[in-house]
Amino acid sequence: MNTVSITLLQQFSQILPFALFLVAWQGVAKSGLIDPTFLPSVGAVASALVDLGANKSFYTELAVTFGRSLGGLALGAAVGIPIGAGMAVSPAINGFFGPLVKATYSLPKTALIPLLILWLGIGSASNMVAVMFSTLLPFVVYTYHGIAGVPQILVWSARAMGVNERRLLWKVLLPASQHAILTGLRIALGFSFVIAIAAEMIAAHTGIGKLMFIYGESGSYDYMFAAVTAIMILAYIADRITVEVSNHLMRWDDIENRLG
Amino acid sequence: MSASKIAVEGVSKQFDQAGNPVQALAKLNLAISEGEFVSIVGPSGCGKSTLLYMLGGFIAADSGRMLVDGRPITGPGVDRGVVFQEYALFPWLTVFDNIAYGLRESRMTERDVRVTAERYIRLIGLTGFENRFSRELSGGMKQRVALARTFAYEPSTLLLDEPFGALDAQTREIMQDELLRLWRTTGKTVIMVTHDVSEAVYLSNRVCVMSQRPGRIVKEYTINLDRSTNREEVVLSEAYTAIRNDVWLAVRQQVILASPDDR
């Protein structure tokens, strides 16, 4: 087979699952298995998406949600990376945060949202703090394991060349943990969208989550699904950008360690 | 009496291995003069790498003294350059930045860093590879970068931990001659740990044989080979063969002595 047809085949195999999913969706919608008022057809969602896309205020809502996700994600990184790094280099810090991390690891962070809203009020602040809490742990855990796994020999090597204990973090430990930390970032990015939207659905005046909630309440399921689709596309683009940037930063690393 | 460049006096070291204490070194003594090339050979697990890492300042002794230029070793220092078995290059840095690493740490101006690093890149024949990362290099290339990185910031003592162990036979010989040339032109003090007796005899002024654990220096051989000629003449000479056989037998004896205890 020539290379052109191989490439086409690869592209086809990537699209195939989506195509099958849409066909199945359309099939179920038409069959009447689920009440058509609750499951709009693919066409109805597509035309709702086109309608939303023509509306300027929709992009404002998207931007609000996107900003909250990334803002909370940045907070999560700003708090989580130092905690993870501290835990890896200091037994005392590990002794303090280790049990907390273990205890809260399986806690669904969405459960905190109502409380945060009570404390911080409805709006971006409570939303971003909720996102921060949910993205904190991936940063903590991946940074911790990344740094704890840095080969002793690299540390010694830097020490022999005059790097003192205090500067090891910047000169060796963090650069050597890039792969782990970027993996944590990618996982946290996914969480950040989920939590930002969930928080908006619980209580918010703006954002895609709020919009989805309103459409759901009013029975405009085609528009609700269109909003879900839009945020999926946005999250997908954000993920791809993260992967591309990560792989560029990690171009020194083995090919098999690339993010997919 | 002239003071030794490096003095190891009655040094002992015990490790904890899965809950069991393991005596790595027991009252080890060793004195090395300035400019000397000393190799340490011995059965595997005899603690020779431990000794080297202690001289590097990475591991502290339980008892005894270790001195460099008469001062006790309290930690790593730029006076002692270390070349590790697995090269230990920083994979996120290019060849150039790896070689420049120690130079930059010494607060040299960026201009001087560039000049020195480029000189060493030429010296090790890696011109054109400045911007490669270590994953793009062969084992021999990585080893050359590791040696250049350590030579570049001019430590007065070099601590080499099986520096050629991971190389194929041909590359190893080329690198050995390269090291010999660098040592001759710079006059550094070199301590090399190796399990390759031929390599130790070919390169060193003195070969120390270590016992099985707990490690002590049990035999020393002064090597007076005429190295003004080429490798063939040295390796094929009777003097070289005789001393290599002696050292090999001494190491062999330590291996045999050790085996009944292991059963």
Q: What does this molecule look like?
A:
The complex is a heterodimer of chains A (260) and B (263). By secondary structure, chain A is mainly α. Chain A has 11 helices and no strands. The longest helix of chain A has 34 residues, at 56-89. Chain A is globular. The radius of gyration of chain B is 19 Å and the shape is globular. Chain B has a 6-stranded mixed sheet, with helices on both faces. Helices cover 40% and strands 24% of the residues of chain B. Chain B has 8 helices and 10 strands. The A-B interface holds A 151, 153-154, 156-163, 172, 175-176, 178, 251-254 and B 53, 56-58, 75-78, 80-82, 84, 86, 88, 90-94, 101-102, 105-106, 133-135, 149-150, 153.
> In angstroms, what is the radius of gyration of chain B?
19 Å
The percent of residues in helical segments of chain B reads: 25-40%
Summed up, the domain count of chain A is 1
How big is the Rg of chain A? 22 Å
Summarize the structure.
The complex is a heterodimer of chains A (260) and B (263). By secondary structure, chain A is mainly α.
Write the layout of secondary structure elements.
The complex is a heterodimer of chains A (260) and B (263).
Chain A: H1 3-31, H2 42-53, H3 56-89, H4 91-105, H5 113-120, H6 124-148, H7 152-160, H8 168-176, H9 178-202, H10 208-217, H11 221-249
Chain B: E1 6-17, E2 20-32, E3 37-41, H1 48-56, E4 63-68, E5 71-72, E6 80-83, H2 95-105, H3 110-123, H4 139-152, E7 157-161, H5 169-186, E8 189-193, H6 197-203, E9 206-210, E10 217-222, H7 231-236, H8 238-262
Parallel strand pairs in B: 3-8, 3-9, 6-7, 7-8
Antiparallel strand pairs in B: 1-2, 1-4, 4-5, 9-10
List the keywords.
heterodimer; A: 260 residues; mainly alpha; MetI-like fold; 11 helices; 0% strand; B: 263 residues; alpha/beta; 6-stranded mixed β-sheet; 8 helices; 10 strands; 24% strand; globular
